[in-house]
Amino acid sequence: xxxxxxxxxxxxxxxxxxxxxxxxxxxxxxxxxxxxxxxxxxxxxxxxxxxxxxxxxxxxxxxxxxxxxxxxxxxxxxxxxxxxxxxxxxxxxxxxxxxxxxxxxxxxxxxxxxxxxxxxxxxxxxxxxxxxxxxxxxxxxxxxxxxxxxxxxxxxxxxxxxxxxxxxxxxxxxxxxxxxxxxxxxxxxxxxxxxxxxxxxxxxxxxxxxxxxxxxxxxxxxxxxxxxxxxxxxxxxxxxxxxxxxxxxxxxxxxxxxxxxxxxxxxxxxxxxxxxxxxx
Length: 280
Description:
Layout: H1 3-16, H2 23-34, H3 45-63, H4 65-75, H5 81-116, H6 119-143, H7 154-164, H8 174-184, H9 189-215, H10 224-252, H11 259-278
Helix pairs in contact: 1-2, 1-3, 1-10, 2-6, 3-9, 3-10, 4-5, 5-7, 5-9, 6-8, 6-11, 7-8, 8-9, 9-10
């Protein structure tokens, strides 16, 4: 992998991790279509992957720093009784929403990704992801509900967390699934996206931490860490810009916000299937 490829992958990671279009699906489908022969299990790729996740997580922490500061001070008991109570309630919701993905990911991640990780299957699930987004918009529109994020309950958080587990399948978007889960619980797009990005932070950081011990047992080629650091910065800047864009976008287009991403996923999935079958 050269520097140009690493920067392209970093931009792709920073955007697709947060846009409801599946970063994993893109990572599985695009390299073979572009003719990039990347060994994602090699010692050279591991630090690159870790740094990409770290850059994305830092971007989310920086964008939502006020939320995380309020949560931290509230959990520590700093502030008024109302602030402490509300912060601890939101922290509990984040923990509850994170638990299903932690359990299922720990038990089934390698099995699921090994079973569904081929480019053809990932492209197929990109199409499924598109219809999932359309499904969420359709049901949400028929329900005609518009609850603010502050009314989120433990059952809402658990439901959203269960939706998050579907993102273990390449092609299914983590942010898309959790936003759809929020919409089906009656939360508006901006609130569902806000909560989705909050629960993404511990998931991404957790994935990063789990990979770090492997680095201690690998012989990393010279120059890989330097290239990975550059890619991390690129991924972080892209993720921060993507988050800012999406939060603004969801507030302005609450009636149909997921539809363009749905059509994109369906078109990309079908186009990728055609290329994989008839060209590559």
